[in-house]
Amino acid sequence: MTSDRSVIVDSLGVGLATGAYGVSFGAISTSSGLSVLQTCLISLLVFTGASQFAFVGIIASGGNPLTGSLTAILLGSRNLFYGVSMAPKLELTPAQRLATAHFVIDESTAMGVTRPTRRQARLGFYWTGISIFVLWNLSTAAGAWAGNAIGDPRTYGLDAAVGAAFLGLLWPRLASAKGRLVALVGAAVALGLVPLTSAGMPIILGGGAAVLLGLLWRPGRAS
Amino acid sequence: MTALWGGIVVMAVGCFALKYAGLSVPERVLQHPLTVRAVELIPAGLLGALIAVQVFADGTSVQVDARLLALGVAAVLLALRVPFLPMVVAAALVAALARQL
């Protein structure tokens, strides 16, 4: 049986590793045209990595900010399900729910939901979520400041860093055939729409088409 | 400028609302298999589309440049299990170097 101490140590390890990504978010965000203040506020108030990257990626490609926020919210829809699976372990009052909701993200749920006891589920969830939150915001500020100080982002390949960051987020989902198919269809449809629609739309339409196809596709039916 | 702030506010409110709602709704409400499967697929579909646009789009035209090389390097490093941050930095460096040549 895992000790409380090792749950905390593991959680802090995940917190350190994940919180450091904030540097790349900060740099990419300011090189996409957002101010340091906007960049830091996004990390403070949105606090869900993939959604934040999606938003600034769409702004960088000239998309409408509302299209960007819609894409970010769709990507954040998985947090809804994380909340559902954590709720029985946390047993929160409505006031506690308000204070806790912000920390519901991929990593805190992963480190909390698998624990055998309620006590360790809570330890894993809060130590992971809060340590990532603190580091993510500090490293966002550092990256935003550095990104702002160095001039044209293309010289440093920062525009190419966005694609690499998204690929890193997508990577675990490419392990399954369905994940690969859905990602490929999303990419192909989006690319086909780039010349035809305004910036930002190819992403939502491509992603939507891919999800629809994924829902219809049954492994084994196709040869 | 105002539109950008508007987008940030909508995103912040929307993302928090999803997290809060998850902690508040009873499990059975979201147990419909179609909902569960759709939510599992959304990240892969959207990220695939995001990568394609980020790497190939230049406004409304499609073009191949140093960004594709950087993406290739990122894929190789991910296959080698290089952690996220060094992988992103290496991809950026490759694009920067390719543009110097």
TrEMBL record, chain A:
GO biological process: L-valine transmembrane transport
GO cellular component terms attached to this protein's record: plasma membrane
InterPro entries found in the cross-reference section: Brnchd-chn_aa_trnsp_permease
Pfam families membership: AzlC
Key words, A-Z: Cell membrane, Membrane, Transmembrane, Transmembrane helix, Transport
Main location: membrane
Entry keyword Transmembrane helix: yes
Record membrane topology: Multi-pass membrane protein
Localization per record: Cell membrane
Family: Belongs to the AzlC family.
PANTHER family, per the entry: INNER MEMBRANE PROTEIN YGAZ
Record protein name field: Branched-chain amino acid ABC transporter permease
Organism: Aeromicrobium yanjiei
